[in-house]
Each structure stands twice: as structure tokens, then as C-alpha cells.
Specification:
heterodimer; A: mainly alpha; 2 helices; 2 strands; 24% helix; elongated; B: mainly beta; DDA1_dom (chain A)
Chain lengths: 104, 1072
Amino acid sequence: MDSGLGNWPSYDPHNFSQLRTSDPSRSSKMAPATYHPTHNRVVPPADQVINTEAKHILLREIYRRAEEKIDLIAATSPLQLTPKRAASDNLTPEHGSKQPRVST
Amino acid sequence: MSIWNYVVTAHKPTNVTHSRVGNFTSPQDLNLIIAKCTRIEIHLLTPQGLQPMLDVPIYGRIATLELFRSHGEAQDFLFIATERYKFCVLQWDSETSELVTRAMGDVSDRIGRATDNGQIGIIDPDCRLIGLHLYDGLFKVIPFDNRGQLKEAFNIRLEELQVLDIKFLYGCSKPTIVVLYQDNKDARHAKTYEVSLKDKDFVEGPWSQNNLDNGADLLIPVPPPLCGVLIIGEETIVYCSANAFKAIPIRPSITKAYGRVDPDGSRYLLGDHTGLLSLLVITHEKEKVTGLKIEPLGETSIASTISYLDNAFVYIGSSYGDSQLIKLNQQPDAKGSYVEVLERYVNLGPIVDFCVVDLERQGQGQVVTCSGAYKDGSLRVVRNGIGINEQASVELQGIKGMWSLRSSTDDLFDTFLVVSFISETRILAMNLEDELEETEIEGFCSQVTSSSVRLVSSTTRELRNEWHAPSGYSINVATANATQVLLATGGGHLVYLEIGDGILQEIKHAQLEYEISCLDINPIGENPNHSHLAAVGMWTDISVRIFSLPELNLITKEPLGGEIIPRSVLLCAFEGISYLLCALGDGHLLNFLLNTSTGELTDRKKVSLGTQPITLRTFSSKNTTHVFAASDRPTVIYSSNKKLLYSNVNLKEVSHMCPFNSAAFPDSLAIAKEGELTIGTIDDIQKLHIRSIPLGEHARRICHQEQSRTFAICSLKYIPSAEEPETHFVRLLDDQTFEFISTYPLDTYEYGCFIISCSFSDDSNVYYCVGTAYVLPEENEPSKGRILVFAVEDGKLQLIAEKETKGAVYCLNAFNGKLLAAINQKIQLYKWVLRDDGTHELQSECGHHGHILALYVQTRGDFIVVGDLMKSISLLIYKHEEGAIEERARDYNANWMSAVEILDDDIYLGAENSFNLFTVRKNSEGATDEERGRLEVVGEYHLGEFINRFRHGSLVMRLPDSEVGQIPTVIFGTINGVIGVIASLPHDQYVFLEKLQSSLRKVIKGVGGLSHEQWRSFSNDKKTVEARNFLDGDLIESFLDLNRSKMDEVSQAVGVSVEELCKRVEELTRLH
């Protein structure tokens, strides 16, 4: 493996073993048949017709932030079943005063 | 021409853009999948080499193509995304041999700026998601669920705006991409991101690498156990992973393609912009990368894709030259190359320019293209039909039939040619000087005269046996094979004889109700010397009948319909399928499938070959049997993929043909033409013949000059070591040998932009005029150019006159005995003026401003049609009295043009850079100046190909009395190597074919569920509208590939019989 050449991978040793080396200046002329599907399975299953989610990336970001906010409030709310956390020092005032407007 | 146009491909795209290797057609099959822009080819690796399996048209331009293995699957799936933002996942169903769509969809966004560097489509190696980079600043994710089903796609904001490449990394617990990008200071960096499917967002990845090679352009992900990524630059190659960084310097080069060799990712093949193939080796110890090594292997075509196949064989796909199958040898050859080219696959792309000429003066156009780029540049001579290469000929009038004979049945070669005339039979033989001379028979044959059948012995030359027709009846037609004779006499007598050992024996006689017009007993069964069926064509009831032999029992009677009698019948077999061919007196040919055991005739089809009676004969070439149909339009009938095809023979009129395989003229045919007997070899049996003339440089413009029998080209050569590596030339080539016979080098920085052959008023000489531009590095737009006028004197280019211009001369036209030039934004007319000293000069007469860049100009009479860089088509008129050029009308759409042509006085054809075609019409009858000043868009169509050139002309020989011969055509050439034909149809034919097209859309479905209607809709940045007044000939002609039941379905929808549909569509195929 010094030169890196040789020891080429072989998946099926028969492949190309009977290749007749035609004159390489002449080009290969074998033309495959052209495929014209007439069956119905060119149409994928209904659930595999894929589209991009309708929600724009910006809206998604806004909703996500809103949700994060809810989560944060929920985490600090007294209704939480888990033991109440001590109010953190860096909690900004508006977080404490605002109520969630969006339900989800 | 007309506004109702039919667009059809004569030569399919050959530019290979993608290739992948995998187990696609079965878990055991190793396949090579190739994308050629709008088509996919599936090949199978076999001991004999690459075996083509299927050519799959895709209703879209393929932007990305990947093979991937979903969880728990034994076979790979194929992912394809198109430039118009459609994608599909295809699976091969090996039971039905069909492509099944697993998923498809639309991944376009309503808002977004398309990426500058093309689309990227990648699949996570652990098959968790498909990643797409289609718009700047967005990365689209199509997630897989755990059953391998695709889910709704979503976008992620990608901060990097100038993305060069994105790849998935191997061996990451979460799907991770590496992004190669350029910042706004033009520095290049790589960065990794994990894709969080839950949050639909990126998370900072494990590593990043800043300030890479300024030419870094390509990422190669390395599979386990090493993992990480290779970053290929122009001067360095870097290996990067979370815990390793290795770099090596390389000889400056631009890597265009790579192919992984080993499954463990330790070796890669790299192909650069000069066609050099190198091997990149990652050295490693205990799964740790210790270094990189690169080694040049040898030269190939300039690669656009490289796929390691098996056992040291590699596929090189090319956009600029022929694609290749190469072998990597362990030892270098004499030139030090480890690369051995074993096969070449023709690629005409990019067709930058072409011309249509009749080099052999046969009344048939040939297309000569400027193909390929850089070192792989070439001229290609593309010719339709099958040529006969004449070896010998003699004048002989009135030939009525011909047969070749061997001295004995064991002989390899034919010795004699038996030529029969009305009242005599002559025997020709090859003499020692390889000349044909008349001789006495020494064969063993049967001769049929009007009253008897004579069996003549070989050695003694004596009449061995004779069979006499009943008195009062003469023999009208007869046919024979090695052991049988079938003949018909007047009065409808059919007589069957068998040839024994020197004996002719009447076996059976049958009395038919009508006269017999033609017969055949060509053996197509197992015994090559004996037939058990006879085909008989009849007068009066116009039928063809199949009889059993030796009983002469009628098995099948097939009425032909119509009033034209059958003139020649032939039993034949192609690719294991038996046919009965029946030629009529009016040049039509019927073909039937023949069931050899029952004699049943089915699947009747009709084609029109010519207008005169046809004589059918079989012959073989390269061990395959074909049929020669001699008529006013000689045709070879052959079979490919179990479908009968008809290819023109490039001869004017042939009355008889017989195979003649003599020692001096092996594998030849004897052909009786008007007053002449010719012996010649036949081309390979295929429709298009392409001859390649490698130039080693890039030809950009070509034109032919009939008078000097030369071609002139504008070309450029790259000499990497030179100070200015690009040098441009005007070269003169002999039109027969294609050798350079004269060269005129252009100045430094001077580009040859256009070339025409023309003459001027008051000067009988013919000149080559060349338009050039000085492309200076500091200028955005050339401000200087030249028009050079050359004469061909003694086979040399002589510069007769030159004229400096204030810009690039993009186009030249001979115009009213003057020269019309398009120079930057201006159209300028020059007259050819005789100076006092007897020399000529170009003198400016008038001009017209008002274009962005006038790139393409065509003229007709006093009208000038200009294709602008971005202002579509405008129509100008030259006013003789005022000596002025004025604008008459324009199309106000903002089309970026790539070619224009004038179809007729009122209709102009344009191609634009979003791969669309359109026609506009002059509105002479408009009520107001405003209306008259508008070119009305009358036709729109998405071709999906970038057209560089239109030319009037035809690839096929035109017969004035055939219907197809009346249809005017324009030929086009494209970047993908497509040669196409646009045919202007009469309105009624257009309406008929449009109906056929819409029925075919319902029967032939788009692969991957892609819609034909959407694909052909005219679409650019500004609008997308349904195609109109253009028909897709490729779809229409695929009718002939359908099976009978689907044909019936279409026939019912259209309300026209299958036979009539076949005939009309077959006629259209003869346009190209």
C-alpha cells in the first residue's frame, strides 16, 4: 500500500472480467430502452406527498419564544405541582408582572 | 412556417451531471445510475461490462441525485430533486420491472433567493433526514420517521449566506452537517451544526475551522471508522474532525469531482479542471488519521462526476467531453499513466454552435457541431440515416432482380451475382483484379422463367431438372429458399416444389380464387433451410394469406383494406419475434406480429416509407438480421428493444438489393439504382451517426463555405504555462478531411465572437467575415473589437480587410449585399466599398441604438430580428431610400435571450436562459401604432434545455412528394448536447396531435409523479404559464413504445384507430 495503488475494492470479482476492450476511439453505442410508466404506482401514497410546513420560519420562531415564555412562567408559577423554586435573582421585572395571553 | 410547432429530440442529452453506484434494481445487482440533466440511465455491472438497462425521462432538470438505504431495506432508493423544486424518491420493483414512487413533493418556498452556487441535496448517512439548500439563508429538512417514511418538511435559518458546500458527517449521534462558506470578506470557513429535529433548529456542532484555502470549494465526508471531512481547496487539501487536523499542499488545480474508492473512506479519486485524475489517500493508524497523500494517476475527460464501480473500473461522467469507462492499472504505461480508457460514451455537449451542410451532396443535411470545452473540444458530424459506402459500381439498365450465389454451400463468401433483366439473366463474378465481370454460371441454383423452373447443376453447368408450368399459364411470381420453391402462375395457381438431390419435385398445388401478387417462404423457424409457412399477397381482394407448407392449407387470411395491392411480402424474425411485413404498391408498409405455430396475424401497424412500390429483402450486418426496403425512399427496418425501427438509407432511389458478401467486398450489399449497379458496405444500423473530430481546443463558432469547400472556426486554446493562458484563433479546415489547413491567430485578449461566409454586392468573391472583441481584464464590457474579412486563396486564409469597432461584434449577417453587425448595444450596417487603389474596405452606412446588448441577429429581406441580452426580441427594418434602420416592433417581456430565428415573415422564434422557447408574431394589421409596435407572444413552452443556436435545415433527406417533406423545420443545439427539431405544422395536424398529446398525458405518467403539464409550462423568474402552440414530440412519439392495450386506450380517447395513429406518429419520427 506504499503507493496507495492496487488492492482495489471488489464487490463481485466477475464484474468486468469478460469486458471486451473495443477500440476506445470508437464510442459505445448500446442504447437502453426508454421507460414510459403506465402503471398507477407513479403516484406515491397520500401521506407521502410532502410539503413544507405552512408556518413561516419567522412565525415559528415567534411562537417558539412565546412558548418558551409560557414554560418559563409555568415553571415559576405557584400552581406548579413540583416544589416551588426560589425566585431567581436575574428574573427581569416584566416576566414577573406579565400574564400569559396566548393559551398555547 | 407557422405558429403551431412540434418540438422533438433528435439526439438526447449526453452531458453527464451526476452518477451514483448502489444496489438499486435488486439487493444483488450493483447498478450505476447516471443523470443526464433531464434523463436518468440505469446500468447494471456485469462480467461483460456496463450493461444499459433503462433510460428514464424525468419531467424536470435534475439538480441533485442520491442513492440511499432506508432502515431495514435490502435495496437502495433513489432521491431526485429538480431545479423547479420538485423532488421524488424512487424504488425499483424488480417483480414488475417498474419504477415506483415512494414519496414526492414540492419543496419550493414562496419567498426566497435561489442559491447562486446551485442546489444542494444531501441525505443523512443514518437516514434520519434529507437536507436541502435551495435558497440563501435557509436549510430545508425532510425528516424520516422510524419506518422510513418522510414527514412534513421545515426550514431552518442558516446564518451563512454564501454557502459553497454542505455535507452530512458520518458517525454522529445527532444528524450533523458541515457547511463550507465564504464570509463577506471573501475568506472561507467550515462550520458544523447539529440538526435538532425536535426544536426544528440548529445546535452548534462539534467543531469549526476558520480561514481555509481561498479556493476551498468541495467537502468530502469520511465514513467510519475515521469520520470527519476532507476540505478540497485549490492549493491545499485539509482533513478536519473534532480531534484532528491534517493538511497537505497540492499542485494548483480546481477539483471538479470526486469518487470514494474504499468503503472505509481511506482513498478517493479526484478529477480536476484539466482532466487530471489523482488519488487521495488518508493514511491512518488505529483509526487515527496520520496524514494525507496525493498521487496523480493520469488523464481522463474533464470529469463532472466520478464513480468507482468494481475491480479497479471507474466511470468518469463528463460535461465537457465524452464520458468514459476507465481501468486503474497497478503499473504505469509508457507515458506514466495508470489510467486506461476502455470505453467512451458520446457526449455532444456543450453544443456551442453548429452548422447544417450537405457534405456528400446527397440532398441531405448533416449537422457539424462545435462540441465540448477546453481540451475536450471537438467537432462532431451528426448524420441521420444509414450510409452506403460505395466500393464499386457498373452501369446496368433495367435490373429486375438480383441474387448472390456461392460456389458451394460451404463457401464463406459469395462469388456470383445473378442479375436478371426482362429477357435475360446475367451472371457477374469477381475476377482476380477484384473487378466485376460477366461470367458463366458455375453455381447450383434454380432459375425461374415465365414457363418453367430450371434446376442447374454446379459442376456440369447442365440443366438437371425442369418443372414446366401448365400450358397457357405463365409463372408470375416465385420465391425460393435452399430447399423449397413456391411459385404462382396466372389463374391463381399456387405451386409448391421441393428441391431434392438434383430433382425438382412438385409437392402440392392449390387453386386460389384470384391472381397472386407476391410470395415469400423465408425460413424463420428453427430450420434455416426450410419454412413451414408461406405468405401470399393477393390481387382483387387485396389480402395477405398465410399457408402451411407442404400442405398449402390456408391458415390465415388478412384483408388489407384499401385499393392498393401488396407488392412484396416477407416473413422475418427480429430479436426472437416473428413478423410478417407486407409492402403495398403506394409505398406503405404493413407489419403484423406472426404467431408461427398458429399462423395468426396480430398487432397490425402501417407506416409510409415512400410513394413507389417497395421490394423487401433481408440481409445481415454484424450478425444481426435486418430488412432492406427498396423503393424511392430506401429504408432499413430493424429492431431495437423489441420495437421495429425504420431508418433512412442515404440513397435516392433503389429498385433492388441483395446481400453480396464476397472476398473482395466482405459484408457488402449489391444495390440496383437507376441505371447502375453498386456494391457497397453499409453503416452500423442505427438512426444517428456521429463522427468525432477531436480538436484539443475549444471551438466556439463554425461556418461552412461551399465555394472553397472549407469550414472556418473561431476557437481558443488554453496553454496553462503561458503568460496569457487563453489564445484565440480563426482556423480553416478542409470540409472532407477536417484538417487544419490555415490558421490566423488573434491578438492577445482578442476573442473570436462570430463567423460567417458571405459575399458583397459588386464583388463576386466569397469571404469569411469574423467579428471579434478585445476582452480586457479591466473592462466590464468590451469597448473595442474588429471585423476581419478573409478570402480563401490557395487554401490559406488571406486577410483582405479589417475594420475596428467600438465594442464586441456579437453577430454578423450578410444583408442586402452588405454586412450587418451587432456591436454591443448597437446594430451597425457596413457597405463594401472599392477604394481607388483597387482594394476594398468596410464603410459604416447606418446603425440603430437601443439595445442592452444585441447578441443574436437574424435577417430576412429588409427585416432584422434582434435577440437582446435581456430585452427579448425586437424587429427592425432597413429603409433603403433613407439609408436608415428603424425599430418596427418589439416584445416588451424581459426575456434574457440565448438564440433567435425567423420562422417566416411574421413569426419569430426565441430561446431564453430559463430554458424556455417562445414565438412572437408581427402585428401588421394592428389598428394603432402602439399595437403594430408590439410583437405578440403566440407560443410558449418549457424545453428544459439551454439553446445556443437555431438553424434552418433538416437532418433527413427531404422528398418533395412526401407529406413530411413539406413540413419546414429548424434545428437547435443545446448545452446538454441535445440536437432537436422544431417543425411547423399545418393547423389541422396540430389540433390532432394536441388531442393525442393530452390523451397520452393520461396514459404515460411522469416518473416520480411529476406532471408533464407543469414541466412543459413556460416558466422563468417573472411568470409561469401553461404551454401553448408547442407540442412535445418526445411524448407524442412515445406512443409507439406503448403496448397494444395502452395504444387502444389512447386510440379510444382520440377516436382514431391504432393503425392510423401509428402511421401518423411514425411519419413524425421521420422528421429527425
